[in-house]
Amino acid sequence: MPPIKLDPIDLRILDAIQREGRITKLKLAERVGLSPTPCWNRLKRLEEAGIVTGYHARIAWRLVAPQTGVIVEITLGQHRQADFDRFEKVVREAREVVACWSVGGGVDYVLKIAAADIDAYQRLIDGWLEREIGIARYFTYIVTRTVKEAEG
Predict the structure, then answer these.
(1) Which long-range contacts does 31-34 make (Cβ < 8 Å, 24+ apart)?
(2) What's the pTM value of the predicted model, to 2 decimals?
């Protein structure tokens, strides 16, 4: 499917809903300079095209329960499709993994993990190593402070 052409109004709609997902139809229309019905039709078109994939709440989990943020670089020992598939299946099933990116360069994956504490994180990694899901090496970075975090 060819990419959808976006004009400045579409871009203003995307910017507004990305910043404020709970914006009312009327406020959105006012922000982008359209009347409500054409604005709503444009938003529906963006959703149907798969550009807008959902509306989410950003939750301050640290206020709900203590947690430690961890960034992990993982390199697999083998690079066959079955190795990638096996690793990705395990990652998708792990509730602690809040994001995983397959990357080019010196490592295969970068993961963002939210664990109860360092011990819980290490138990997760140890479990993966015991399951022999193909991890050759991993590098752990503990998040000490969030400077900026946005969806996208």
Answers:
(1) 33/9, 34/9
(2) 0.71
